[in-house]
Amino acid sequence: MQALVLSGINQPVTLQNVPTPTPGAGQVLVQLHAAALNHRDVWIQKGQYAGLKFPIILGSDGAGTVTALGEGAPASLLHQAVLINAGQGWGSDSRAQGRDFRILGLPDDGTFAEYVAVPAAAVRAKPAHLSFEQAATLPLGGLTAYRAAFTRGQVQAGERVLISGVGGGVALLALQMVVAAGAEAWVTSGSEEKIARAVKLGAKGGISYKTEKWPATLTKQAGGGFDLIIDSAAGPGFNDLIDAAAPGGRIVFYGATQGDVPELAARKVFWKQLSLLGSTMGTEQDFADMVDLVEQHQLVPVVDETFALAEGEQALRRMDEGVQFGKIVLKIKAAK
């Protein structure tokens, strides 16, 4: 098969012929039609990730067709169109992943390839209303967004929700999900164009986080503080989120792209009775519930741009530039 292979830190991914995997006991072989990029892929390429190993086939997100079954895999999965849960081996405690938890694309070869072998329990039927390219955007980003908003954030209809850094795949999926749940969503971004596009997806409004004292302006515009805030940046701007939160509010953060918070406004946290909640990926049940939500509300993820598998390095550079609105997708094989 053909696959994009990363041979070392700061090396470009290259299209190579590699052995097609054979599904082991309890596994299925998925012929991939599409795969989606995540920042994780860029961080691995730059050497900014734990447990590096080379050569490696990157890619955590994928959708395709089951073409072969390992021993013990359910026969009903053969020839089924599926999407793949990128997180595997969560463990028995739903509160946090166990030591055996792993994400597809490192340490195991991932989805930037024509085929991938994964546990049968990691696949779920592709929502019929989505193309393979759209479905491929869901696994890691959709799971992260769902757990942040629902499992950890406990979003309720009618609540005001703020989603920071809209434009990235997880933030946009979180926006679509909370709007579907009946919440009132607001956004921040460094781009006025991205805010305008978010409004078209259902956001009530937004503001540039470059605006001086933006929390006061936005909470006035929204009619009050935010019951739930979903963030991926952390860093020096985290205290702005504390200012924007309503008394008794929850701040869920699933990333720290701007680094650690240098000086937490602890007094405001306890005086406002805030809950700070960490979240990442999700359980198998979170994954199933996320797909159910997408099907129930016929949600369509936003695809930023589609590249051929051979253009994988170009796609990674677009991800690295941070200019995308939605998910970047590799089209691997046209669905028959």
TrEMBL record:
Highest taxon of source: Bacteria
Pfam families attached to this UniProt entry: ADH_N, ADH_zinc_N
All residue ranges annotated as the Enoyl reductase (ER) domain in the record: 8-330
InterPro entries: ADH-like_C, ADH-like_N, ER, GroES-like_sf, NAD(P)-bd_dom_sf, Zinc_ADH-like
Molecular function GO terms recorded: oxidoreductase activity
PANTHER family noted in UniProt: DEHYDROGENASE, PUTATIVE (AFU_ORTHOLOGUE AFUA_2G13270)-RELATED, PTHR45033
Name this polypeptide is given: NADPH:quinone reductase
Protein source organism: Hymenobacter actinosclerus
